[in-house]
Amino acid sequence: MRVLKHLFENNRAWAENVRRTDPEFFQRLARQQSPSYLWIGCSDSRVPANQIVGLLPGEMFVHRNIANVVEHTDLNCMSVMQFAIDVLKVRHVIVCGHYGCAGIRAAQRGDQLGLVDHWLRHVHSVCQKHAPQLAEVADEAQRSDRLCELNVIEQVAKVCHATATRDAWERGQELAVHGWIYGLQDGLLRDLNTTVTAFDETHAAYHAAISGVL
Ligand code: CO
After folding, report:
1. CATH number 3.40.1050.10 is the correct assignment for the domain at 33-213
2. Rounded distance from Cα 167 to ligand 1 centre (Å)
């Protein structure tokens, strides 16, 4: 109970395996990180960021929370974004949701799960914003999947409005913001076509993406 022996064994085997294919790997990474991507995804254990896109340690900066929410009042998320954009100079911010997200479903149903309900109010707002269009989807699972997509598109717009992002674009730094969704059933990513590379594209990209999923 106190020592998770099997995890340490796994770790030793993994490190050994990495060293066998690239003896300098850890020494090189220990000196510095220079990832090109910031991933903002769901905490769900079935959506491991690096693995899905086949990236190694050092290649992607990662922030995960329940239902991949970007909130301007969330000091954690905003600090991650600011550090990734200003200091690490990532070229891409990827907001990645996933179908079958339990957080999205709970927000949609108005389930009472405890403290997490406060967090899920952010998703509930997305649900209310698009309530008339969502009501047209008869099947509950499909309606939930639509909300998973809408939630990503809304969060992308919030990334674009964040100070760190706008400042980067204003000083001419190259930065693209993407909205993706992952399928638990097939392990595949889908682009929600809401990519923004300059602040003045935000509005059009948002509306095009929303009409693309509804
Ligand atoms: Co989720």
Report:
1. yes
2. 30
